[in-house]
Amino acid sequence: MDRNPLFRKKPIALIMKDAAGGEKETHMRRNLSVADLTAFGIAAIVGAGIFSTIGTAASQGGPAVSLLFVFTALACGFSAMAYAEFASSIPISGSAYTYAYASFGELVAWIIGWDLIMEYAVGNIAVAISWSGYFTGLVRGLGIHIPEFLSVDYLSAMRGHAEAVKALAGGQTLDQLSFHLQETYLAWMHAPQIGDFRLIADIPALGIVLFISYMVYRGIREAKITSNLLVLLKLLILMVVIGVGSFYVKPDNWSPFAPNGVGGVLKGIAGVFFAYIGFDAISTTAEECKNPRRDLPRSMIYALVITTVLYVTLSLVITGMVSYKNLAVSDPLAYVFHKNHLEALSGIIALGAVIAMGSVMLVFQVGQPRIWMSMSRDGLLPPRFSKLHKRFRTPGFATIVAATIVAVPALFMNLTEVTDLTSIGTLFAFVLVSGGILIMNPRGKDKGQGGFRIPYFNSRWFLLPVWALVLVVMFVSEHIAFSFASLAEVEWPVWIFIVVAVVLTIAAIVRQWSIIPVIGLLINLFLMSELGVTNWLRFVIWLVIGLVLYFSYGTKKSRLRNMDIQETVKES
């Protein structure tokens, strides 16, 4: 047992006992099969990214972006295997928070739990706002007009109106302005007023959050049925898009395949990675799985494989329909069909975006309350967060709070500029989960618990060849080749990665660690370093706020600090 209470680890036996509880009313309903879990993963992965990120990445890397999706899926696969091993060993709700408690201790567990709150909440706020935009566009195409002041957030309307006024004063007409400026200008001008305050709110964003949260509140069965239906519709729509689009592919558009070389392809790596970050939400449903030790690992891998095939196929189709040079647009799917005079499919694409984003919100709204539930069981959050609804067997209070912190900002605020916090938060979780495996099971031994174990490949024999391959790519690529004279320009997040990479490589070779979690940790830390100083500073500020809450509440209420762990585990 760790002497320092801040790093006291929670034994797996105690985690299992706390989750089992002593009374029937503490048990969650086990309704999820491997198919349901795979659908949850697809729902979380195939979201806004496939309707936006894919275009920017293709414009930089050309048709070779299809290979980037394969590389990113492999990179996520290393993290997925770490998640899968933890899920087999600790089949309990809580995701990376629970895994960190068992491997790193209480302080790190709190940090990752607080990090996941940011990841899920900020991510869903941005998705809700994006969903509203696609939804209003869809119903507008059906002849239904939602007043602008009821479909735009207040900050966007205020800023857009000010920008539009300047443009109009400069001699432009309203029709000459972009659609966004027209929309925000009209929202500000037509909004009802109370004194000087204008009543402007994004009602569709509020509506989708409340609807999704209601499904989650009612129970995992209802959430499962909704998720499966949305995933089925989403896949059918994307199959139609791929099927029709394939008839308009011009092979000449695939040449050159990698016009900007390896560097051009790698420029889109952070954005492409964003498309995959949702698979970790599968692990939050562990206590509602019929066979978590078997089904959680399988579903994570299945979801990654299916979505990778989908992304690769779609990227080849859109780069074949239109030259990669023209794909740096916010709605690449709609754009390529418009360029090929297939406007009739624009409504189908808009419907696909609405369904895709709705399914992402569903999975994240399922995941966040279950993480809070695990933190509450440990005393780090108030007890109400772990209380289950008597009828629905869901963490009802936590679900309501999660809905509130997403719905209110989505109603009034424009938070799209902080969406990168979602990426850095998820990458941080992946880093800790991979590092946790190196602490719990560094040499891939089967500890007799059954379930999934990461295949063991000795870093002593494989890690140096991997680094040699990386260095070759670095010197071949103009994007990341550098001279010693340019080292002074390297930002400090990159230096963090370099130092950690050197130390970790030496330790892995000397101690013969399993190479897969080592590579997973290094890849995710590298992607974090690529997100820039601003995002790191925002991330650090969020963590500081969390630490203040932990030392003012969690350290006093922590159950682990005031119990005899050995006796408690024996009783189980």
From TrEMBL:
User: Which Gene Ontology cellular-component terms appear in the entry?
Assistant: membrane
Name the domain of life this protein comes from. Answer: Bacteria
Q: Which one of the record's GO molecular function terms can you name?
A: amino acid transmembrane transporter activity
**Cited InterPro entries:** AA/rel_permease1, CAT_C
Q: Which UniProt keywords apply?
A: Membrane, Transmembrane, Transmembrane helix, Transport
Membrane-spanning intervals of the chain: 37-58, 64-84, 197-217, 229-249, 261-279, 300-324, 344-367, 394-415, 421-440, 461-486, 492-510, 515-533, 539-555
Q: Which part of the chain is the Cationic amino acid transporter C-terminal domain? A: 515-558
Protein's cellular compartments? Membrane
**How does the record say this protein sits in the membrane?**
Multi-pass membrane protein
Q: What protein name does the entry list?
A: Amino acid transporter
Record the organism.
Prolixibacter denitrificans
